[in-house]
Amino acid sequence: MTPVSGVGPQELVERGLAAARGDGCVIVVEESTEANLRWANNTLTTNGVARSRTVTAVSVAGRSAGVVTRQGVATVAEMEDLVAESETAARAAVPAEDAAPLIGGDATSGDWDAPLDRADIGIFAAFAPDLGASLERAARSDQLLYGFADYELTTTFLATSAGSRHRFDQPTGHVEINAKSGDMGRSAWVGRSTATFRDLDMESVHDDLERRLEWARRTVHLDAGRYDTVLPPSAVADLMIPLYWASGARAAADGRTVFSRPGGGTRVGERLTDAALTLRSDPVAPGVGCAPFVTARSSGPSSSVFDNGAPTRPTSWISNGVLGALMQTRYSADLTGLPYTPFIDNLVLDAADPGGDTNHLVAATDRGLLLTCLWYIREVDPTNLLLTGLSRDGVYLVERGEVTAAVNNFRFNESPLDLLRRADAVGTTERTLPREWSDWFTRTAMPPMRVRDFNMSSVSQAS
Amino acid sequence: MSRSVDPSFRALPLDRLADAALSAAGRAGVAHAEVRVERTRVGHTSARDGRLESDSDGIRAGLSVRVLHEGTWGFAATSGISVDHAAAAAAEALEVARISAALSTERVELAPEPVHIAEWVSSFEINPYEVPATERAEVLIDWTARLTADRRVDHADASVTTVQEDKFYADSAGTRTTQERVRLHPAVTAVAVDTGRGTFETMRTLAPPVGRGWEYVRGRGWDWDAELESLPELLAEKLTAPTMDAGRYDVVIDPSNLWLTIHESVGHATELDRALGYEAAYAGTSFATFDRLGALRYGSAIMHVTGDRTVEHGLATVGYDDEGVQGQAWDLVRDGVLVGYQLNRAMAARQGLGRSNGCAYADSPLRVPLQRMANVSLQPAAGGPSTEELIAAAGDGLYIVGDRSWSIDMQRYNFQFTGQRFYRIRGGRLAGQVRDLAYQGVTTEFWGSMEAVGGPATFVLGGAFNCGKGQPGQVAAVSHGCPSALFRQVRILNTNDEAGR
Lengths: 463, 501
Known about the structure:
The complex is a heterodimer of chains A (463) and B (501). With 463 residues, chain A is an alpha+beta fold. Chain A is built from nine helices and 21 strands. Chain A has helices at 9-19, 76-92, 127-140, 202-215, 233-245, 249-253, 330-336, 358-363, 416-422, and strands at 24-40, 43-61, 64-71, 108-109, 143-160, 165-181, 187-193, 219-220, 225-231, 277-281, 315-319, 322-323, 347-351, 367-381, 386-399, 402-407, 409-414, 423-426, 430-432, 444-446, 449-460. In chain A, the strands form three sheets. In chain A, strands 1, 2, 3, 4, 5, 6 and 7 form a seven-stranded mixed sheet that branches. A six-stranded mixed sheet of chain A has the order 12-11-10-13-20-19, covered by helices on one side. Chain A has a five-stranded mixed β-barrel with strand order 9-14-15-17-21. In chain A, helix 1 (9-19) crosses helix 2. The radius of gyration of chain A is 24 Å and the shape is globular. The two termini of chain A are 43 Å apart. Chain B is an alpha+beta fold. Chain B folds into two domains: 7-239, PmbA/TldD fold; 247-498, no CATH class. Chain B is 22% helix and 37% strand. Chain B is built from eleven helices and 22 strands. Chain B has helices spanning 7-10, 14-27, 83-101, 133-148, 224-239, 255-267, 272-275, 345-350, 387-394, 443-448, 495-498; strands at residues 32-48, 51-69, 72-78, 117-121, 155-171, 176-194, 199-204, 247-253, 305-308, 329-334, 337-338, 360-361, 370-371, 375-378, 397-408, 414-426, 429-434, 437-442, 450-453, 460-469, 474-482, 485-494. In chain B, strand 6 and strand 7 form a beta hairpin. Chain B is globular. Classes of the chains: A alpha+beta (463), B alpha+beta (501). At the A-B interface, strand 1, strand 2, strand 3, helix 3 and strand 5 of A face strand 1, strand 2, strand 3, helix 3 and helix 4 of B.
């Protein structure tokens, strides 16, 4: 296919900066290619390939910023127009509260000049035949498969007029498969992250799905109530991500989040749980690596366009059970008197003394529930970060260390902070795909966790 | 005022792009091909405590080609808009269809649709991009400053998102449509912090997002001054309101809350792609399965729900959908019984339903069109009661105003919602706010408990900008109109109890 443009991203960035006439300028170019396949009822439903270039120009005029993003910028003239447009916006703009000097020349990363890699539908060359075999296997076994395979390669170029230059290549791939029995009465789900689509063993994924469908041959009805519950890593990720998103320092300092200290200030330094758990982000964490610099296409409570290009460093949001840091802009760090700890696009939870995988936690459970994953998680009460949501695609009864039956789905009401307090067994951290939030946040590594008295508020008839 | 599509969009070589893609696809012998060229401008501005927090302006633009080749779809898209890009996208879409054919066991066919050559523009007066650039920021700064000037308000946020969506669609049958839609969503939240008790409360405006222009911010269709003036007292009352025991209560639900319950429990449940399992691995399926069409008792006999893509100022209102199907209106639930679904052309043909009712939509030129939600609305009762009369009929119960938290299971049975404010009803009159409540229900039980719907004077067109569906994920804006309504014996939760406090 024809490349998106004749002018390369590196040249566009430099020509954009050269055209800048204001008090400062940031250019962000994002080159993205994507391919996906989707299937349902054992047949393909949709597919697609997409290529895009998205360019953001931030121009500074005094304490004001003009922020303009355009897709498809193809020529130097269009790039110069974009910079001029952002300068016009900056000159007209009301002063920005987060105004700060742009990030300077000592902040650089990545191989700026390396050629661009692009994805196309060929990424599925090995995967598609394996998927086809799985669809046929399902049809033979009176099962129905539903799912999605997606691969995206995004390269970000970020430069500031103060001299900062960053480049980061981020491949993101995942496959999700939901298997249902022919009568739709039993349902199971498996999700896997992959950066290549060449490392997936579809046969073992299908074996895993079948094992779960077999577990559901016997079903037991359980009423709503509080149950000791084993949460696999995906479910833990889906509960920790809202906690991370709620950790803005500015809002906490304003007194309006669960991390606000009664009487004023934030709860940084306060013990949240007796468990030796650490919730952290690290741009070079193995398997979940992400850009080691800040990219902000707009300002907001926890982002600032003036911070573009600031390096990110390993950050412990919760350190051995103590609230260690909140999500900051340089502006909010100044307001709160806390270190500048910006958002990082991955999240890892680990225990000081981890104890095996999900199967180990099940084996060590006398009576309780095993979840597969969670769904439709929303904040009910920001004062305690109470969340609601549902179990999905397999809740199992554990008796004397073994799965003995499938049970009905539940609606839960729980706060992730309470879960950290009530975790009585925490396993080994592994790379996992968050089922609920994977559209927005995919790079997580989480342990399985057993939580005492998990609040299943009501029964859901969904199967 | 009669408007036409933005001349700068019309200036793109739309017909030449279409010709390049459709002729390339035609040479390859596809049964059907379509081209979309889109440019969507999204502006977002926010203010906090009388100061500007954020102001940005973005355009998503590009073109896509979708082909139906030997019964299998193929889709390719690019942010480059040129004749070469269009021809290359057609070739790549064909390649995607060929690779996909091996995984397809069903042959896709399309329901027939007349050929349309048309231009269509949504109903608005002032394009938000034609007002002075600083007005957005100044309005929001003023709104938040007014609120924080009141000693009962500690913090205030205001934001406005403005969208201008221009779309060109052409297909191999000969349809060519060019459309422009404008919508915006202003919202303001006031926050009170009780440092002594170590807690806080918020109160958000009820003003819905609308398919209108900047005139909405200036007061056409909503009285911003009155609503902003009311927030400090409403917030102060909520902060000190008593909590209440969980239990079963009769409730009157205001349109500002009920629209979201309709969205989740009726809108999504009557999407045929969900009922057929296409969303099973992601958004979920529906209890309202196809075999129950015409038979499923959805709610009480007074329940009449329509789908439409035609209502003035509706967020899902279009002239033509993203498969070239003209916008229509139809019944989904009539006399309490499921009688219709939301369709696209492939599903209408597959299920033998005749013409599509025009619910195909893609949120960007880079995404394939899916069946997305029409404006799904609960109809009022002609000559029906006022909200005050419904409250009087409730006798002892609750009145719920404004949406807040929402969640529903993947087959659309079990839901839980909170609100901006809950009022106690005693002796048929409002008796002050109560707090820390949520309502939970099962869809058909809940709608079955609807005893009365309000008259047309209580009807409000609410809605959302952020309805998510599909993989890769897409976001759509949709409106839901409804009257106030009375429900008997709804399960009310105390959220403090739920949190184990």
